Amino acid sequence: MDNAIEKSTAAQYDKLICDIGQLITSARDKVAVEVNTTLLDTYWEIGRYIVEFEQNGNARAEYGTGLLKQLAHDLTLSYGAGFNHFNLVYMRKLYQTFEKSRTLSYKLSWSHYTEILKIDDELERNFYIRQCELERWNVRELKRQMRSMLFHRIALSKDKEGVLELAKEGQHVQEPRDLLKEPFVWEFVDLPTPERMMELDLEHELVHKFADFMLEMGRGFCLMKEQYSIPINGDTYHCDLVFYHAILKCYVLIDLKRGEIRHEDIGQMNFYLNYFRHEVCQSDDNPPVGIVLGARKDDLVMQYAMEGISNQLFAGKYQLFLPKREELQKHLDMLLEEAERNI
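Now predict its structure.
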């Protein structure tokens, strides 16, 4: 600090720096929002001009006249970068998809929209828009969630009304069951097939690639400890991963199994949950949640294993490769069609 500033005023000076810094940050944020809003509105208007020119009053106009390539060439010459063929294609698609500009979300950037506009299904598209708003995903995170078919994985656990609500509002974590995605996808883990690895290998790799792991787990998870020690009467047991969930206000215990989940794995997790309820949880905590994750599970075995258990305990599957879009889409279509037939 400059000698001209007396030590007695050091605290006031530090506060001055902090106040000015907050003012600058706030101003920059406002400018960024205004720039983004103006950019999206401008690109939407450009898309409208292109569509109206192509249609020339005919709603069934044929595209492919080479207009966009010529337009990209001329606009780039006159106005510089940003008007290449790719961008013009998506400006047109932005207008065609959101025919009223007020339906655009200005919390998303143009880069977000160029990814989301690759989705043809309206339900799926709306889900990712809402989820970007809720989770504040950057573009890299959005790409990863789209590749992992997050919408389909969550939607398949719901009824038709749940799917429609998911597309409209996004995934709000309101109860322990909302933590599940079937299956969890850990394609970022560079390990051999589950049968050839140890459970500790998977656990360490997940923690090592923590950012990707937490993106898959979802908002609200705070890692407390891996290999959490549970000492009881001279014996020590270990739960693979223990989190605290900031939204649900509860501990979340996760045990990893390299193969199929067995009935005794459910009993072991129930044992851990009872310990946490009595020895760890505070009076203002909600009851702990247990999740056993394995490469496979038998639904009937799980039904019998969990019958009569009062704790919040779930069994789920994980996989180390991205799911096939065609298969998940087929299952989702069947779910929605069956719901239509039952109306």
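The beta strands are 184-185, 221-232, 235-245, 250-260, 289-296, 312-319.
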